[in-house]
Amino acid sequence: CVKYLIVITNDKELWIVSIMPRVSFAPPSLCLAFLSLLNHYLPSLPPTVRDIDVPSLHRQQFIPSGYRPVGLSWRCCVLSLFQIHNETLNVWSHLLAAVCQGISVDFSSLPLVLYVFSAVTYLSCSAAAHLLQSHSEQAHYSLFFLNYMGVGIYQYGCALALCLYSSYHSSCQFLQIFLPAAAVLAWFSCATCCFAKFYLCRLYPLHRQLFQVVPLAVTYLLVISPVVHRLIMYSWTTSSAPFLHLLQVVLFLLSAFFFSCPIPEYFFPGRYDIFGHSHQLFHILLSFCMLTQQEALFQDFLWQRQGLVREFGEKHLLMACVSFACLLLCCMMTADIKHGSEEE
Question: What residue ranges are annotated as transmembrane (predicted)?
């Protein structure tokens, strides 16, 4: 309650002063106990450091700050998902894109299910690599080998779905040539990326980039060729899928540009360490590219699903899907071999 004090001054004036009770803003003991428990299981994360404070393996060109200290525990690496550092946008862009992927169920949609699985695998591996790589040098190599395995799997998942759903000139004979070639190139991309990461990362950064970009580019040209043939040779008025395919090609080319060129951080070192550097732009554009590609494939699937089994037959569809498992196994073995070499 509010109390009042009557005061009479020397001039015989009467003042009535209200006295407010003391209010305490201290949290109750139960809250303090909860906060103490929370601090025990969720330790405060160390602040980010500059590039000179981390080994050269963890540095990015023209990004002088925003690095997490090397040697964090696995728990701190996971909790850094909610910390602001120069990998935050790389992790979240692919995590959110992975959540947005959908799943289909019937037999004619089996290649589409494998495509979605490949996309989620790649996005999850990429997010895990960028989130946890600062734990140690060994973890850095292992996680990025896992990331490159996801790249190879996703490339073949795209090849499988695009040639079956988005191509107007596919046949059993075409599949027998196209899919093995795509599988070999997808595995080769995985192998060369692992090789470049392990052997060329420190001493030959330009050679490393060439070893990664060239195989990835050749594989992409093959994978996207059925779509390009369709965009050139056939009408765009049947559905909105051709426009989505064109958009996904544009987004991929833009993402490839930022993957290859350190822009804008080359011109403004230090300004884009946390938000806006080239690798983050690559991640964001690639995420939008994958979501656009998924929507285009869903539309093509609805258009083609009735005649898919009739045109190719269950046997050829099943063999195409089994080849996906073979490619997955090859990429896993390649990443594991490189991981074994790194441990030695």
Answer: 112-132, 144-168, 174-198, 210-232, 244-268, 280-297, 317-335
